[in-house]
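Predicting holo structure, flavin mononucleotide bound.
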Amino acid sequence: MPLAPWRSPLARALHRNRSLAYARYVQLATVRSDGRPANRTIVFRGFRDQTNQLEFIADTRSSKIDQLLLHPWGEVCWYFPKTREQFRLMGKLTIVSADADAEFLKVRQNLWSSLSDASRVQFVWPEPRKPRSADAFEILPPNAAEPLPNFCLLLFDLDQVDHLELRGEPQNRYLYLKNTAADEDWSMQNVNP
Ligand SMILES: Cc1cc2nc3c(=O)[nH]c(=O)nc-3n(C[C@H](O)[C@H](O)[C@H](O)COP(=O)(O)O)c2cc1C
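Done. Tokens:
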């Protein structure tokens, strides 16, 4: 699959901001069942091999999963402080959980194994959003080779990208639109900021 045209400005931003760990933290918005927005910070984990899909991880018990099951749409807002640019990434999220096809299970497995114990142990924690449990957090890290059933991957397929560069007089803004749902045919337009 060819690299989408927004991949090079995004790769450049990631490279130039690589000294900032928090430049890989993004805000992911989803839609609640009542139509209200929901937004939270998550970590960008990279691109799925040979694709333009962004990878994130989540707990299947978290609210974002229920939201995505009803409305698969998401928007990521990503600010890079060093280069002072914003990417707004729009598209559809696919949940890859324990019942996925073999090809996706492999990706899920690899991501699980690449996590730190501190990240993996969160998937043993008691149910999110339930009243705080007194001592249920005293748990050893789970097996690094065996993803827990509530561990899932989110694959983000984009159909629009809005890139704003604050640097420059005046600012620059580029809109990328995917032309068809089927393949990676993108157009790019230089628009007013
Ligand atoms: C810096 C930072 C990184 C985070 N990374 C993730 C992540 O990669 N995946 C995730 O599901 N939640 C992550 N969280 C927690 C989410 O922001 C959120 O609190 C949690 O996922 C529950 O969200 P929900 O109820 O909307 O599903 C992170 C929070 C912070 C502050």
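The CA atoms of residues 121 and 142 lie 6 Å apart.
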